[in-house]
Amino acid sequence: MSKYFAPLLVLLTALLAPAWAQAVESRIKDIASVQGVRDNMLVGYGLVVGLDGSGDSLRNSPFTKQSLEAMLERLGVNTRDSDLKTKNVAAVMVTAELPPFGRAGSRIDVNVSALGDAKSLLGGTLLVTPLLGADGEVYAVAQGQVAVSGFKAQGAATTVTKGVPTSGRIANGAVVEREVAYAFGTEPTLRLALRNPDFTTARRIAQAVNAKLTGAARALDPSTVEIQIPPAARADIVAFVTGIEQLRVTPDTTARIVIDEASGTIVIGADVRVSTVAIAQGNLTVRITETPQVSQPAPFSDGSTVVVPRTDVQVDEGGEQRVVVMRSGVSLQDLVNGLNGLGVGPRDLISILQAIKAAGALQADIEVM
Length: 369
Fold this sequence. Notes:
The protein is an alpha+beta fold. It has 7 helices and 25 strands. This is Flagellar P-ring protein.
């Protein structure tokens, strides 16, 4: 078994152990959000200038050349008949998230990503770039110095790259120009949207609200809870929402095992249960080693030098592996202990869990990322 994997499973078990002994309560604020209060995605196309020869090659990036010529024309410089060869300019895509209730004049962060064959955006400055929403309207304008955390150093025979030098960020780099209209608090009801939809959790949220406001809340579906706003609370809707958000409930989750096959990471939920099942795991390993030897003729003999093959074949059937019996209704701790006893690694554990699920003995969903 991998020396890193066993401690990982033990650590996950230790972290989840308190949840078995006592359910953990969470604020409604942490498991649900007010419907309609959300971010809006913005995107724009712009130019980054001031690069130290690491920008786009205009021959391979015609859109950069066209954008540069159009920008210079707007500034009164005609370059249509010129052969531009600068490498200090890069075409970029600029993205941002307009927060709910973002007011005109406030600032938001923007991300800048190279679009052409630029090598790095280090030291570049983003020129004025309108940021558009899904409706095609301009909601913000971005400009500023691009902060790049990665770098790239290249020599004649070696290249060193850290991070991604072709993407960066501008803190407070965009000014909000248009607000998203939303009349908050004008409706007689307030709806909460669960981040992880679940029937039980929605019902518990409604019960917690009704304990404070009798008959005011009801669960419409696994992801929505509707709350009637009392007439007296409409004068200060912010205080009303704050009081609802601070209520505590115990969220319920589906028993689930998440597997990331690319990295071999496995996360087993606390509610996973296994029926009675016997597990045997063994690996068949075949090692073939080639050790050719050179055979030379005796001195003054009429012979030739030949290569004599030497092949060594070793077969390991995993004879030390054992059979483990999982009793009905075992917990996560029992499952981890049993699989640790088999001495399996992450890859083998993935196959074992999928096999237990196929046998119908695993009462949990397996999600493969």
